[in-house]
Amino acid sequence: MSNVLNNFLTENLDALKNQGLYNEIDPVEGPNGAKINVRGSELINLSSNNYLGLATNPALKQIAKDAVDKYGVGAGAVRTINGTLDLHVRLEQKLAEFKGTEAAISYQSGFNCNMAAISAVMDKNDAILSDQLNHASIIDGCRLSKAKIIPFNHSDMEDLRAKAKQATESGQYNKVMVITDGVFSMDGDIAKLPEIVEIAKEFDLITYVDDAHGSGVTGKGKGTVKHFGLEKEIDFQIGTLSKAIGVVGGYVAGKKNLIDWLKVRSRPFLFSTALPPGDVAAITAAVQMIIDSTELHDKLWENGDYLKAGLSKLGFDIGASETPITPCIIGDEKLTQTFSKRLFEEGVYAKSIVFPTVPKGTGRVRNMPTADHTKEMLDEAIAIYEKVGKELGVIN
Ligand SMILES: *Cc1c(COP(=O)(O)O)cnc(C)c1O
Fold first, then answer.
1. For the segment 241-259, what is each residue's pLDDT rounded down to a tens digit?
2. Where is the Aminotransferase class I/classII large domain (predicted)?
3. Active-site residues: which are they?
4. Cα 255 to averaged position of ligand 1 atoms, centre (Å)
5. Is-same-fold flag (19-48+294-391; 58-292)?
6. Which residues is 131 bridged to in the sheet?
7. Gap between the Cα atoms of 328 and 352, Å rounded
8. How do residues 163-196 score in pLDDT, each as one tens digit?
9. In the predicted model, what is the mean pLDDT of residues 287-316?
């Protein structure tokens, strides 16, 4: 190894470890369901994005296996050479139906979907108004485009309007885009899409909503854009196939001419191998399940509301979430980490999230209930929260 690299790695890894910021990863020994096995213990799992339990759904597992038998384990090429299987075409039709748009395009992940889509449309002569709490993949996608990034205060519509006015009236930019998460993953709050659309209309902004945490969860499962009835108003509806949908991948849903353009200009579509057939078949069936029935969605919300009520009654600060995402705000970073560690020892897996992921002094343990949790599991988790909360003086 080069000395320069070795010194760089040693210095920086040691610094992280000394500050207690080096993240040790616990492998899950088995499926990522409502209960998981980690380091030999069985724990109630409140950390996955497997909102509807579809990652471990038996029918979807069988559909994936059947597709592997028929098509093999890999797509064999990038989409534009001959990696487009009939399965991909069916998936994209299903995604368009799901999102109420003319067309859709799938990608290998939600992260690379943002890399793909933003830079296919925006360039150095453009500007992007970006909510300050947007996901890392949105930030990286914006950077890759080389457009001017203009952050606005989180969900602050006055700030957005002022910056939209300034950007469009300056005459400096060819195109201006506004970009936001649909549901913000750390607090569980929902973007103010009706106001964003109004501002976008006033200044002719391109609208881009990444609904990774909304699809399957809000809008009776159909997402945050649907929740507000704005399918005709949002230019880019982005989603992931890796959270509520339970598999892996990402997509853009929108007008046919937008999707046609992304198929010829978005680089991960052109230069990275297509999603594998087993995944594509399972995803298509998962989307169909969400279209056909709200049963899992309803169970998810029932569980979310139950967990929130239980923690709130004990005196925990659960923030202002509008979705099943349930932060338990502890404050101090060290205390938050100790809290999460004690939960683990007592039988609950819930990750601590601290600065720089969230602002200093707002350290939290984030709970992600799913449709697969039973009342008994949630009662047990709440009892463990009570025990640890009292022990650490977070509640009385
Ligand atoms: C999780 C997330 C992504 C990344 O999705 P993956 O499919 O896991 O790559 C993108 N955007 C937002 C807003 C997310 O929350």
1. 999 999 999 999 999 999 9
2. 42-382
3. 185, 213, 243
4. 22
5. no
6. 152
7. 9
8. 999 999 999 999 999 999 999 999 999 999 999 9
9. 98
Which residue CA neighbors atom 7 of ligand 1 most closely? 110
User: Ligand 1 pocket: which residues have CB below 6 Å?
Assistant: 109-111, 135, 137, 181, 185, 210, 212-213, 240, 242, 250
Long-range contacts of 294-298 (CB under 8 A, 24+ apart): 294/220, 294/221, 296/52, 296/53, 296/54, 296/221, 296/371, 297/52, 297/216, 297/217, 297/220, 297/221, 297/371
Atom of ligand 1 nearest to the CA of 213: 15
Burial class (CB in 10 A: 0-12, 13-18, 19+), 193: buried
**What is the pLDDT at residue 337?**
92
Contacts of residue 336, Cβ cutoff 8 Å, sequence gap at least 6: 330, 352, 353, 354, 363, 364, 365
Select the CATH number that applies to the domain covering 58-292 from these four: 3.40.640.10, 2.70.98.10, 3.20.20.80, 1.10.490.160.
3.40.640.10
> pLDDT tier at 359 (50, 70, 90 boundaries)?
confident
User: What was the pLDDT predicted at 56?
Assistant: 96
Rg of the chain on CA atoms, in Å: 22
Crossing angle, helix 110-121 and helix 136-145, to 10 degrees? 30
Q: Please state the atom number of ligand 1 nearest to the C-alpha of residue 210.
A: 13
Ligand 1 atom at minimal distance to the Cα of residue 181? 13
Dihedral Cα 166, 171, 176, 178, nearest 10 deg: 0
- What is the token pair recorded at 77? 């090429």
Q: What is the mean pLDDT of residues 17-45?
A: 92
The rounded Å distance from CA 240 to ligand 1 centre is 6
The domain over range 19-48+294-391 is classified in CATH as 3.10.105.10: no
- The two tokens of residue 324 are 């099943």
Domain ranges, ordered by start, for the chain:
19-48+294-391, 58-292
The amino acid sitting at 325 is: I
